[in-house]
Diaminobutyrate--2-oxoglutarate transaminase
Amino acid sequence: MTITTPKPSGRIPDRSIYERRESEVRSYARAMPRQFDKAEGVWMHDNQGGRYLDFLSGCSTLNYGHNHPILKQALIDYISADGIAHGLDLHTDAKEKFLNTYEELILKPRGLDYRAMFTGPTGTNAVEAAIKLARKVTGRENVIAFTNGFHGMTLGALACTGNAAKRGGAGVPLSHVSHEPYDGYYGPDVDTAELLEQRLADPSSGLDAPAAILVETVQGEGGLNAASPEWLRKIAALAKEHGALFIVDDIQAGCGRTGNFFSFEDMGFTPDIVTQAKSLSGMGLPFALTLFRPELDQWSPGEHNGTFRGNNHAFVTATAALRHFWSDTAFEDDIARRGTLLEQRLETMAREHGFETRGRGMMRGINVGSGELADAVTAACFDDGLIIETSGAHGEVIKVLAPLVIDDALLAQGLDILEARLREAMADDLAVAAE
Amino acid sequence: MTITTPKPSGRIPDRSIYERRESEVRSYARAMPRQFDKAEGVWMHDNQGGRYLDFLSGCSTLNYGHNHPILKQALIDYISADGIAHGLDLHTDAKEKFLNTYEELILKPRGLDYRAMFTGPTGTNAVEAAIKLARKVTGRENVIAFTNGFHGMTLGALACTGNAAKRGGAGVPLSHVSHEPYDGYYGPDVDTAELLEQRLADPSSGLDAPAAILVETVQGEGGLNAASPEWLRKIAALAKEHGALFIVDDIQAGCGRTGNFFSFEDMGFTPDIVTQAKSLSGMGLPFALTLFRPELDQWSPGEHNGTFRGNNHAFVTATAALRHFWSDTAFEDDIARRGTLLEQRLETMAREHGFETRGRGMMRGINVGSGELADAVTAACFDDGLIIETSGAHGEVIKVLAPLVIDDALLAQGLDILEARLREAMADDLAVAAE
Amino acid sequence: MTITTPKPSGRIPDRSIYERRESEVRSYARAMPRQFDKAEGVWMHDNQGGRYLDFLSGCSTLNYGHNHPILKQALIDYISADGIAHGLDLHTDAKEKFLNTYEELILKPRGLDYRAMFTGPTGTNAVEAAIKLARKVTGRENVIAFTNGFHGMTLGALACTGNAAKRGGAGVPLSHVSHEPYDGYYGPDVDTAELLEQRLADPSSGLDAPAAILVETVQGEGGLNAASPEWLRKIAALAKEHGALFIVDDIQAGCGRTGNFFSFEDMGFTPDIVTQAKSLSGMGLPFALTLFRPELDQWSPGEHNGTFRGNNHAFVTATAALRHFWSDTAFEDDIARRGTLLEQRLETMAREHGFETRGRGMMRGINVGSGELADAVTAACFDDGLIIETSGAHGEVIKVLAPLVIDDALLAQGLDILEARLREAMADDLAVAAE
Amino acid sequence: MTITTPKPSGRIPDRSIYERRESEVRSYARAMPRQFDKAEGVWMHDNQGGRYLDFLSGCSTLNYGHNHPILKQALIDYISADGIAHGLDLHTDAKEKFLNTYEELILKPRGLDYRAMFTGPTGTNAVEAAIKLARKVTGRENVIAFTNGFHGMTLGALACTGNAAKRGGAGVPLSHVSHEPYDGYYGPDVDTAELLEQRLADPSSGLDAPAAILVETVQGEGGLNAASPEWLRKIAALAKEHGALFIVDDIQAGCGRTGNFFSFEDMGFTPDIVTQAKSLSGMGLPFALTLFRPELDQWSPGEHNGTFRGNNHAFVTATAALRHFWSDTAFEDDIARRGTLLEQRLETMAREHGFETRGRGMMRGINVGSGELADAVTAACFDDGLIIETSGAHGEVIKVLAPLVIDDALLAQGLDILEARLREAMADDLAVAAE
């Protein structure tokens, strides 16, 4: 069984420019050694006629698919009319529209009162701004982050990231952050919120009073671990009790990925600070926001800045995306339905092989126990026209990050490929083991 | 005397959305309290009919002006054809073209052999990548940066930044960086390269062996201080002698601003690492590069990454900009001519009032001795249709960052405004002093 | 019931010199507001005729009692003969004798092959040397220390200390140390060695690869928590498995306090590094040692030093103490017997009031649940001629650190006082509660 | 010419215990490979009949010579009477006497109002306490220290130390300290106080607002550089102007070494904090003090502590030393006369060979330009019965730290040896050069 996608034709052309001129740091291009040129909706096209169903979505940056026609048209219109592209942090029509729309469609309906800070347009910059602000407001230095958390690559955010290989790139020790066990880290019988509570309450635990507790509700890079609402509520309450700000890094799990605009909706707590990026612009353009309660807005003018903090193209597409997808609940209903589909299919696959599923909403995966196996499966999928990647400390979780706008039938087709390739890989494993 | 630009009409509309929803961290919008909508070439337009000559150029992000027609058309074409917008670090046609063009038009003609790392698309991310790599390659932790240097707002780059107000926003101590006096810091009679040489040679100076020396050839935010080629050569030689990598942060001074594509051309040294951003995309889109010698490319795949490291829109406009402006020397000749014009006019103004000029190429200013005076002058200019800003530790340098493509006559007109407003402000000052 | 010790007579004399000239940092003098002049064996005398049984022993610095006659005579003889007092790190007869004796009586019988480093003569200096060496040898920066651990007040050792009030005195963030839960920290049902094992094995836990694991076998300041041999063995094995050095800080628990010369004897592991101080000189003179396996002795000459690292008076008394107390097993037998006595008496008291005991050997206490109660009891004991102090995060553990040489009958008498005063304080508490 | 000291006789005995059991970190014992047993006044004796004139004085720890009879007798009397040896920070008769004497003979006559903090009894502990307090009181983190400064080996003090080899032993980056050029660092024509003034006044210099400026008036380990009173006054004024505390580390230069009890007397400023150690006990016993203005005494009880902070033996000898040497000005007159003698003799030697002298009072040396030459001279001196050592970044300064109590004739004799051995070494150098 394969999805009927055209395969690329012709010999692989000369790619020596990458060897010669692009740094060895490149990664995805190694596992997916094609050259892409166009993309629309759920499809990516290579420049040799190949077509690929995208179950990666730019790591959740393309929740609305590639080049969504409404966003695309809005952007073309804006550029054609000489709309300002780059405006530092000047007031622009595009920014005003974005702010008004965000207030009307996102904040007001959810009863949220946040101020928005346009940081440099990357997730790591948004996280840096968030922890800077928490330290400034509280006068404390320590930030509590969690095992398997991923928050970015600049030094402040990297210190909050758990992954040793990423941390090792810093070249200096990463300080002022304590990494505590995430929900379920020590198995289902240990409530890690209670462990944290004990350490915070103990004046001799060595855990310095935190400026902030920084958490992802689902750990995108860390293996799709989804924290329970109860655990998150406890952590939020602990933060409040101990004078720390509660920061939700919603960069990967937000913008509908887990079902709602924010990943923490209806959970019974309101973060003090929220970071957003990835799918915020809706079309994959660089854009990031740090939201916080107005009382926390103690920045001096220009105390944190960045040349590209006024990416007006992103304001335009983000506004169009908000209007199109978040004016009513239809999109959330779709996500809920597709998320259930995805869950059921993954559960079936997991049960077949004795694995476990992970995640929430349309941010789910299967823990296949080893990075080698996961890589074998995703490589086979790619050959079959399905772009899919892995996650987790050992890359042991095959993750499905399909566009949220995917047609149910196509979602099923993509999962068929995954199911088949997984079954084959397991058979190969057994064959090898039997030798 | 005023430039004949239309003034905005009508009452100032409701802007409460900014008060209500945008963080207090906003800065430029305070000094230029209009709302802008369109821009082309050297002109910005507010939404009430006002027109402004742009002598700020997005802090040197818009060296080719706003919405340059060739870049704009290339981008519209790309989007219209469903060109990939967001590609993580996958190979794309747009990236391949950019790399080939960069190699052909930039690297080869200059005899430079660099690898390019697409970092998160902001200058600070490029600087973080640069110092990470230097620390990784050398196994050392200390970075030497300079007084009045500005390198970004994320923790690693901020530690390299001299400005106390920016540093204070960190909320944690900024470590692993030594700030040494820049060229001319102690006046014309003290060779600060010699001071640094002594400290580096002295095993008891307290200066830890550096992984890198990080320098701007002209300090954009720090007051337009331009280092002499002799000084830069000495610093480059010191880096080499002491096993440190020599990093030129060319984010603001590069892309033609100081006369050539790189600000250090023809100076007799080759940096080990170069950072670029701002005008690199040509149209103000977020884009950043870290270049380094191939021997230094010791990254593991994915050791440093970032969601928006593959901003394909920026690849497209950057490629178009390289082809249009850097295929021959015409553009450089223009910059040279305009730079001389600018220099002469600023010298005249400075002489009239006993001030000093600063800078190099089309990156020049007048040190008027106080931030208050500078602010008064730039505010008067804005009322007169000229967007111009200040720089320096006390904001005491009025800086001219006109688009490099500006018509000579318009450049003169803008400078006429500056000259007149400066003269008036000086007269006001004298009148106040006489009271 | 009271011990028949003389009470001080006369009015309290003028002590304003302390108010005027000694820093507010003084602590013990506040709870024990007498002025002492002489001391011998288990007795301290104030200068108004009062006599006190010493159940504090200089926080385990006076395990052999005050001014032990044999040590005292050896010191007087040495001084009288113009023996060198201060010798930097020169070879001296006194040092040679100490090293030979230490080798003969301590190392050889225990099958230990250590080199000795004479650090500055305080425990914190010995800890600083230990962690410096571990970082140097492994090339790693992180040190794992434990909740409630206490290792000293200089910045390197303070970073390893758990107590928030002590840490707060640093004035800078304390970095490069991870604090993990000690044995029993999360109650009897959670094996914290397993938690640590999981974090060390997980490349995404945020726990940087450790240079060392630093542990007290019994936490003297942290509440007399005694780690089980099984737990310590696991921790030692984890250190080895993960390339970290295993450091036992034996400053308070060593020199016989827990029963043997080292607190870890017969536990089935050999630390890579051991720190000693407190009772090492035997007479309360400043003296500290860092011991390590010869392969770890990678110091360059003078790479770590200190003016008083050659305290020859301490060499003399330490040698005399080793010869007198550690030439055979009689002393260890005595400690064992007295430790059992102490354990039984404390257990009885604890049972009476529903409390728990803590500790091991002659390093034991009762957790009375609150610092206020513990303070009330120890203050009443002091009025009754018994010097005794508290320990723990909240000062909630009354700790008995009697001289190891105490006569069994005197030990019982001191415990009688404690028992009576505790009973009274509990009765007072009940009375108050009943009101 | 040689001083008529007995030479050691017999073969060098077995010293394998040091190889076997003492760490490679030992240093002085390598250059002076004898074993010492007794010492009195200016003389040290080895255990084979050799006698040595001591021009090292335990690095200024033995300013009153070895085993001064009055101090020695006071200590023997105290021990014989069972005086308390170790008293934590309890009030003791010995401590009261010390405080009263220090107030009467040191503080009052000099018009100084300081509180004394008994830190752990090493210089580095005193420095750690000083910088902790400065950070606590000011709420700032940065400490300004100077090139070639030496302040100790624990992490906080080591960060203030300039020497790269010592710093390298830390194994972690040393942070929160800026190293600025000491007086004369850039030659006689550059006023480094002015350089510092500029950097402190410049909000963009990258120099974080300092909690303290920490300085030695003469750099004992750093090459006997003596700061001028003018420079020190400027630095003290800069500290005050910028809200930093001015700390004089008087550990090596104090206690008469430079002429008065404090090295900064009569210079026209009063430090906020002073550290003392080395010769404070008078007999080489471990003892350290941190002095500060009463308003700065913001410690909480026990916020900084240390087991050996109440070394009563040291209180006794320190009190005796204060009474004997500092009750009148006779001792200071002696130092002044001998200092002049020393200065003249060193100047003569320096002139003969084209060298320069360094230092002040009885803390002087000759910079012979290379560590190899200095080592050759001091080794020859040792063979001739003179103990003398080197200092400076390259060990290029031969330093004379004779006991302050040395008889003028003996001082001359020792200098005769130095003069002769220096002349020989210079002749050897010339001979080698001529080959």
Summary: Chain A has 14 helices and 18 strands. The interface with chain D takes residues 172-173 of chain A (CB under 8 Å). The longest strand of chain A covers residues 35-40.
